[in-house]
């Protein structure tokens, strides 16, 4: 596993670079590996530039995420192909993107659960999904289905507003019996999205997801939920708040989704409110940057060396050098917050915002997983005298997540094609040294 972010220390994990003589005494020693697990609606993203007349033609509501039937899907796709309007076709899905980006950043295994067409033809949507997913993502647990996977049309108008049209195909037919209990119980985290709860009729994705969540809750495996879209949360915010409080340990959202579930339009206040339900919150806020909020035991808190920041919570970043802990593991829990402005002020030209939040979450998951990796390989390290769920401080994770999401903003694909560069050509090392 690669170390997350950037450090001054030469050895992030002091377990591989051993003295040659000591190595001879422990020839059979092998590093123990961990993994994270995610459940997703397996889809291919199709991106195109359109106008309002196009949206009206197919009965699509601007700026919303909506499910369309097969007839509309085929007509929509044929029109896009006929008029040569398609810009890109990528393997997609909120959790699929997150698992891929995690494996690229961490150079480590992740496991993706969902469905896959049992008969795959070259050039088909299923084929494109497999071709554009990191080989580090374990797809062996996908459930075969006798039909197509999903298609998600991302339709972008002149203002940059994105309208999503989703053709479900068989993507929501993951069965509860396809969830491997031991796989979930031994994972470092289970990652799900709010989209998995949007099913109907004979679709079984929601039941399968709840089965996995139960396995994770019972085994003490952190459940990570990304909210996905404000429109879904706005339909029943009270239900979502109850679900999050009962089943979720880590919540990822943007400022709009945060307002939908908490009622606060300020991302810091939304993150603070979410701490009533979960142990750790990641809130992306576009040009405002990224906010993180978590708990730390009073005796383990570490004060920042940065200037104290004003905000809805005065001097909220006072303890941002702290490592996040579960609230239940704290004798005297206190809240800690951090904020990082967009990397380099944000890109000059944003080519794509689809997937930037997924990539930020992947960076956070990398740090959580690195903490588990280090703990199982160096269990007696002083690092683990504190029962933290992160390896790094909130401030460092926030910087890392911002840096990772920048890579998605400056490219068209929502998925990373490589990890972060070993040397920053565009910015001095001081970004990481601060």
Automatic annotation (TrEMBL):
Enzyme class label: transferase
The organism of origin for this protein: Pseudoalteromonas rubra
GO biological process, one term: GMP salvage
Pfam families linked: PfkB
Lineage: Bacteria, Pseudomonadati, Pseudomonadota, Gammaproteobacteria, Alteromonadales
GO molecular-function terms, A-Z: ATP binding; guanosine kinase activity; inosine kinase activity
SUPFAM superfamilies: Ribokinase-like
Positions in coiled-coil regions: none
Family designation: Belongs to the carbohydrate kinase PfkB family.
Pathway(s) per entry: Purine metabolism; GMP biosynthesis via salvage pathway; Purine metabolism; IMP biosynthesis via salvage pathway; IMP from inosine: step 1/1
Function: Catalyzes the phosphorylation of guanosine and inosine to GMP and IMP, respectively.
InterPro entries in the cross-refs: Carb_kinase_PfkB-like (IPR052700), IngK (IPR046405), PfkB_dom (IPR011611), Ribokinase-like (IPR029056)
Annotated Carbohydrate kinase PfkB domain residues: 134-294
Cofactors that this protein relies on: Mg(2+)
EC number(s) given by UniProt: 2.7.1.73
The keyword Hydrolase appears for this protein: no
Catalyzed reactions: guanosine + ATP = GMP + ADP + H(+); inosine + ATP = IMP + ADP + H(+)
NCBIfam families, A to Z: PRK15074.1
Residues the record lists as binding GMP: 93-97, 198
Protein name: Guanosine-inosine kinase
Binding-site list for ATP: 284-289, 357, 402
Spans through the membrane: none
Gene from which the chain derives: gsk
Keywords, ordered alphabetically: ATP-binding, Kinase, Magnesium, Nucleotide-binding, Purine salvage, Transferase
């Amino acid at each position: 596993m690669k170390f997350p972010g950037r450090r001054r220390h030469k050895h992030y994990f002091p377990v591989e670079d051993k003295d040659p003589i000591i190595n001879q005494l422990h020839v059979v020693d092998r590093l123990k590996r961990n993994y994270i697990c995610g459940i997703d609606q397996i889809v291919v993203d199709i991106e195109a530039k359109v106008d309002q007349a196009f949206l009206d033609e197919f009965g699509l509501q601007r700026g919303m995420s909506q499910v369309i039937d097969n007839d509309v899907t085929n007509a929509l796709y044929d029109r896009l192909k006929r008029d040569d309007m398609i810009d890109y076709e990528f393997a997609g899905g909120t959790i699929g993107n997150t698992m891929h980006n995690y494996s690229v950043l961490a150079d480590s295994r992740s496991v993706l659960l969902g469905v896959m067409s049992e008969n795959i033809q070259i050039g088909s949507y299923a084929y494109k999904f497999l071709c554009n997913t990191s080989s580090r993502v374990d797809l062996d647990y996908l459930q075969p289905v006798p039909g197509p996977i999903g298609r998600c049309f991302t339709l972008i108008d002149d203002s940059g507003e994105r309208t999503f049209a989703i053709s479900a195909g068989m993507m929501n037919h993951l069965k509860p019996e396809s969830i491997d209990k031991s796989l979930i119980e031994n994972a470092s985290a289970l990652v799900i999205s709010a989209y998995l709860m949007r099913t109907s009729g004979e679709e079984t994705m929601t039941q399968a997801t709840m089965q996995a969540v139960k396995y994770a809750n019972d085994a003490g495996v952190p459940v990570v939920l990304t909210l996905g879209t404000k429109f879904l949360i706005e339909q029943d915010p009270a239900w979502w708040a109850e679900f999050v409080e009962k089943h979720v340990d880590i919540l990822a959202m943007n400022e709009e989704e945060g307002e939908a579930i908490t009622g606060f339009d300020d991302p810091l206040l939304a993150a603070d409110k979410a701490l009533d339900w979960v142990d750790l919150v990641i809130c992306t806020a576009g040009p405002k940057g990224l906010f993180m909020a978590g708990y730390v035991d009073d005796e383990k808190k570490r004060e920042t060396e940065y200037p104290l920041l004003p905000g809805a919570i005065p001097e909220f970043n006072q303890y941002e050098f702290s490592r996040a802990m579960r609230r239940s593991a704290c004798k005297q829990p206190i809240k800690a917050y951090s904020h990082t402005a967009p990397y380099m002020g944000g890109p000059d030209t944003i080519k794509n915002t689809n997937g930037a939040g997924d990539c930020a979450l992947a960076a956070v998951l990398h740090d959580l997983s690195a903490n588990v990796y280090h703990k199982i390989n160096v269990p007696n390290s002083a690092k683990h005298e504190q029962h933290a769920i992160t390896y790094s401080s909130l401030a460092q994770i926030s910087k890392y997540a911002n840096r990772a999401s920048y890579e998605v903003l400056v490219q068209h694909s929502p998925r990373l094609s490589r990890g972060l560069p070993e040397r920053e050509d565009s910015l001095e090392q001081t970004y990481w040294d601060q």
